[in-house]
From TrEMBL:
Name the UniProt record assigns to this protein: ARAID factor
Organism: Piprites chloris
Keywords: Disulfide bond, EGF-like domain, Membrane, Transmembrane, Transmembrane helix
Coiled-coil region list: none
GO BP: positive regulation of osteoblast differentiation
Gene that this sequence comes from: Atraid
Region forming the signal peptide: none
Disulfide bridges in this chain: C110-C119
Transmembrane parts of this sequence: 125-146
EGF-like domain ranges (all copies): 78-120
InterPro entries attached to this UniProt entry: ATRAID, EGF, LRR_dom_sf
Record SUPFAM superfamilies: L domain-like (SSF52058)
Amino acid sequence: LDLSNCSLHSVPPELAEATAAIVLDLTENPLTTLPNGSFLGFTHLQLLAVPLVLECPGGSDAWQEVTVDGSSRQCQGQKNPCNGSTELASPCPENSACAPDGPGLIQCLCDSPFHGYKCLRKGTFPVLLFGGILGTATVSLSLLLWGTQRRKVKTP
């Protein structure tokens, strides 16, 4: 994806739709910062070229090789932050697994059959119970209101 020399002052929001990009060139743009999360979901990105004033997203530790070439900085070979020995403790809660989510970014995916906040709930959502209670409450309240408000209706 070649976005070089496009007079970009900030990262366009439409860039979030290009998560399948393998090569991305942002050089020769008057960019001053790369907001956190600009490359969220860019797990396939292997080469990123940014203006020299910018650092590689995720820092140099998120890339296998960072080189300076003229007026651009090239970030090559995105590292998997989940299998590194830099952190002793896993950043993900129990019953979940770490997965890469872009340069220097991770996501925690719940192991089956766990779900919910911090993967603490086991099993599936009780759809029938929830639907039954909601339906019964709705019908009961509707009948009550119809019965109590019916006397206020004037017939012609």
